[in-house]
Amino acid sequence: MRTYQQQYPPLVIVVAVVSIAILIILIIRPGEPAQRMISHWSPEPMITRPDVPIDPLDTPPPISGALIPVDDTFDLQVSDGLYDSERDALTDEIQRAVAYASNRFGASPNDRFTVSVIHDKSCGMHGLAYTDVRNIQVYTCPNISRNRAVAILAHEIVHQLEHDYYGPAHLHTDLILSEGMATWGAGEYWLNGHADFRSFVDAQRQGGLFYPLATHYSGLGIAAMNALYYQWASFVEFLIQTYGRESFDQLYITGQSNPGSADYVGVYGKSLEELEQEWISWIDR
Ligand SMILES: [Zn+2]
Q1: How far does the centroid of ligand 1 lie from the alpha carbon of residue 178, in Å?
Q2: Where along the chain do its domains lie?
Q3: How far is the CA of 279 from the centre of ligand 1 (A)?
Q4: Ligand 1: centre distance to CA 174 (Å)
Q5: How far apart, in whole angstroms, are the C-alpha atoms of residue 232 and residue 155?
Q6: Which of 92, 115, 191, 273 is the most interior residue, by most CB within 10 Å?
Q7: Distance 149 CA to ligand 1 centre (A)
Q8: Tens of each residue's pLDDT in the chain, 285 residues
């Protein structure tokens, strides 16, 4: 499959602010629904990435590992040579992530899915969720600790749960809601010790990172994308805590891909801008 990768700057990057020091590799697949591919990163300190140019027409490396049934929920495929001596621990940790994400999201997968842990030779860590074909993927390498790969998978698992719960409407929902819910659902895997996303975003905002919610991260760079994912997670947290899950579920299926495209007025009787002001006040409390 053809991909376009937005690359990281060259050489080693040292990051002082750990809570927002995150690597995102954004992959765009022209012509495919936005939610087929989901972009990613990790809540841990930034990894380094050699400056290896990636041809936009490169195909992802083949997955060499055998497909192994893990339990009645998913099959696991790991590239040969990747985490070879840690397979049992990796399997246990992904099982835990599936259970954690399902519990937090409030629903289990409808059917089996495949988790692919793929060796990216350039160590460009990112995740993808092909929810319509039930395959979630993380690209990683032996130099990246497996817990970081699992943290990304926790987010991807929630995308699969979203598809199963909301149906095909998931494929074109408002980016605020799909990415916000996937990040919120990954909970402790992304919170870096914070109690909740409200607290995380409060700290992030005090650090000078804050965007209007209806901002598309395209072209804004990795720090902006990171910040928006956390803001969206916090906004989802706010909507569910304040107005309940039922209204959130009604909202989710009204989105039309772009951030801010869901029918906020129809569901809450308030515009996104009004809800955003309420959310900011809630963060300030
Ligand atoms: Zn995502």
Answers
A1: 7
A2: 171-284
A3: 22
A4: 12
A5: 13
A6: 115
A7: 14
A8: 444 343 434 443 333 333 333 333 333 333 333 344 444 444 332 322 222 333 444 444 567 888 999 999 999 999 999 999 999 999 999 999 999 999 999 999 999 999 999 999 999 888 999 999 999 999 999 999 999 999 999 999 999 999 999 999 999 999 999 999 999 999 999 999 999 999 999 999 999 999 999 999 999 988 899 999 999 999 999 999 999 999 999 999 999 999 999 999 999 999 999 999 999 999 999
Assess contact for 77 and 38: CB atoms under 8 A.
Answer: no
Largest CA distance in the chain: 55
Give residue 181 CA to ligand 1 midpoint distance, Å: 9
Span from the CA of 187 to the centroid of ligand 1 (angstroms): 13
3-state helix, strand, coil in the chain (%, to 5): 45, 10, 45
Side chain identity at 24, as an amino acid letter?
I
Chain Cα centroid distance, residue 202: 20
Measured CA to CA, the distance from residue 282 to residue 192 in angstroms comes to 21
Using only C-alpha atoms, the chain has a radius of gyration, in whole angstroms, of: 18
| Contact call for residues 25 and 5 (beta carbons, < 8 A) | yes
Task: Report how far ligand 1's centroid is from the alpha carbon of 52 (Å).
Answer: 24
- Give the angle subtended at the CA of 132 by the CAs of 127 and 136, to the nearest 5°: 25
Q: How far is the CA of 125 from the centre of ligand 1 (A)?
A: 13
- State phi, psi for 137 to the nearest 5 degrees: -135, 145
Which residues are CB-contacts of 48 (< 8 A; sequence separation ≥ 6)?
11, 12, 13, 123
**Ligand 1 centroid from CA 128, angstroms:** 8
